[in-house]
Structures are given as structure tokens and as C-alpha cells.
Amino acid sequence: MIVALAGGVGAARMLSGLVEVVPPEDITAVVNTGDDTVMHGLRISPDLDTVTYTLSGMINPETGWGLRGETWSAMTELRQYSGGRLGWFNLGDRDLGTHLYRTSRLSEGAPLSQVTAEIAARWGLGLQILPMSDDRVETRIVIDDATVAGREVSFQEYFVGARHEVPVRAIRLAGIDTASPAPGVLEAIAAAHTVVICPSNPVVSIGPVLSVPGVGPAVSARRSHVVAVSPIIAGRALKGPADRMLAELGHDRSVVGVARMWAPFAATMVIDDADRHLAGAVEAEGMRAVVAPTVMSGPEEAAALAHMVLGAAAPGGAA
Ligand code: GDP
Ligand code: CA
Question: Is 54 in the pocket of ligand 1 (CB under 6 A)?
């Protein structure tokens, strides 16, 4: 069995490669829910949906999130009603169906892990998709905005509302101390042949997953079987603020900074060809560095990387 610790887009690409090289039934994705939010009374789980929609081939290619073939009538009405005050967080009509279903089931008392399984089944996905926790954990971002220094906002206010253009001062994971891993998470990590840390934002995607009480130690206990893929290539994130966030929070803005964060959890890290010259510095952080093309620009690239990642985990495997 393969376990993948996952955020959104980078992880979804990694998983789309993994399902090409191992049977989906043998894969469990443990997905960040720190970005989850309640919007208009609806529970939104962006990373879970990005993974589900990508693997079902339904991700909207125009936006990179939400569903293919989307229309926007509900949002148009909402903006009309509110004079534009509401509707800054865009939700397509089809996508709203997912959020209505999730919210209804949660209000009936179903845990998020159960609802997530139901949504995955609807899309015919063979792999197991687990939220990191059934408990609410909220990633809160401390920013300096135009008016207030050190203002704490929700992740979506920072990411979508402020277009992640403002410097991040600190991250707080509200609710993390009392959260439990979703049922099956610890068991899957303990039983996994390989644990893959997907190329997702180390601070706000993988960070929350590893911070759920019990998960970090469970991953560390399997360290020799854990392979990470760097989300930072030549000092940059392919998309989003991961590179700036690292620097703003005092980490090295490079694959070496990522290695320093993940060395306690993973024995091996796959770094991009572009960072070949940093392999020695990564190894100085205590990780084995495997150099490979890591940009998953299409299905072939994703499958090739997945093959490489699983090979890198085996003792004496690809180096
Ligand atoms: P989210 O979609 O906003 O939740 O973002 P993620 O948590 O997935 O993190 C975005 C990170 O994924 C960025 O640092 C990207 O560089 C990284 N990423 C996205 N696609 C790829 C890829 O194909 N290869 C690699 N190595 N990293 C990727
Ligand atoms: Ca995310």
C-alpha cells in the first residue's frame, strides 16, 4: 500500500501519476483540510476537491479548480443581491452541488471522512481519499495589510481575498491540538510500503497534515520508507506563494529549506534536475537526494515521476 500526504494541485498531479503505476485500490491519500472554510453556510474543502476532481478527469482546465463545463449563475445572482459584497470566493454551479452534498451530510452527522468517501465513490475513484482529520482545523494567517500590522485572517481571505500578495508573518493552526487523525490515517501510514510526501506547499498544505497529533510521529517512525518530492524548483514554486512563504517565515527559499523541514520525516527527497547542484546541500540536511525531472506537465511526466518516486523508496532503489 502507498500513502500520499497531499495538498492541492501538486499532490493531485502526483496522485494522477501514482494511479498509473500502482493499482488505485493500493493508494491512500491523506489530504490537508486546513484550507477548509464555510462560505454562505457551505462547507468547502478545496484540497479534497482538487484531488477528487483531478483524479476523475473533471478538474476545470480553465481555472485549475472546480469542475469542467462550469457555469456561474448562482454567483452572478449572489453578487446582484449583495451589490458585489458577497461572491468574492467563486463557486461554480456544478461545484456548488458538491458543497451542498458535503454540507448536508455533515449536518446529518456524517463525519467528513465518510462524506469524502461518498464523493470519491460518486466519481468512481478506486483510491482511498481521507481528510487528515474529521475535526475542524483552520489554517490562520497572520499578515501585515494596509491598515493593521499582525492581523489574523482565514486562509481563504489571504489566498483568494488578498491574492496571497501580502507578506505572511506567522501561521496558526486553530484546533490542531485537539484534532485526531481521521479513522484509518495512522493505520495506513504504519502499514504503507511507501509514504510519499507530495509536492505541495510545505507550510500550509503538508504542514497541517504532519501537525495533526500522532501523524508526524507516525510518519517519522516510517522515515526510511518515506519519499518526498520537492515543491520548490530552482528557488520557485510553480504556482502559488510557497516560495515566498518559506522566505517570509524564515526558511531557506530553496529545496534546501524544504529538506530542513522534512528531514525528520523522510529519508529521501526527489529534487528537480534544475537543483542538481544543491543535492549535496540536501544530503547535508540528512536526506538522500534523488535528482529527476519533477515538473508534471502532463500524464506521462506524472507517471514517470511516480515510477521514480516509488523506486527511490526501495532500499538500493534508483538513486
Ligand atoms: P494548492 O493547490 O494551492 O493547495 O497548492 P499545493 O499545496 O499543491 O502546493 C503548491 C505547490 O505545488 C507549489 O510549491 C508548486 O511548485 C508545487 N507543484 C505543483 N505542481 C507541481 C509539479 O508538477 N511538480 C513539482 N515538483 N511541484 C509542483
Ligand atoms: Ca490548498
Answer: no
Predicted pLDDT of residue 319: 36
pTM, 2 dp:
0.96
Of 200, 232, 272, 300, the one to substitute when testing ligand 1's pocket (max ligand atoms within 8 A of C-beta) is 200
For the chain, the domains span 31-131, 193-313
pLDDT, mean over the chain: 95
Report how many helices (DSSP H) and strands (DSSP E) the chain contains, helices first. 13, 14
Is 156's C-beta closer than 6 angstroms to any atom of ligand 1?
no
Q: How far is the CA of 294 from the centre of ligand 1 (A)?
A: 11
DSSP 226-265: EEEE-SEETTEESSSSHHHHHHHTTS-SSHHHHHHHHTTT
Give 112's contacts (C-beta < 8 A, 6+ positions apart).
Answer: 33, 45, 102, 106, 131, 133, 134, 182
Whole-number Cα distances in Å, 180 to 7, 114, 213, 293? 18, 15, 6, 36
CATH architecture type of domain 193-313: 3-Layer(aba) Sandwich (3.40)
Residue minimizing CA distance to atom 19 of ligand 1: 10
pLDDT tens, residue by residue, 41-81: 999 999 999 999 999 999 999 999 999 999 999 999 999 99
Expressed in angstroms and rounded, the spacing between residue 316 Cα and the centre of ligand 2 is 34
- Nearest ligand to the CA of 295 is 1
Distance 81 CA to ligand 1 centre (A): 36
Does 1.10.8.240 match the CATH number of domain 31-131?
Answer: yes
pLDDT number for residue 315: 60
Sign (positive or negative) of CA dihedral 153, 155, 158, 161:
negative
Residue with cell 523506486: 311
Q: To test ligand 1's pocket by mutation, which of 238, 270, 297 has the most ligand atoms within 8 angstroms of CB?
A: 238
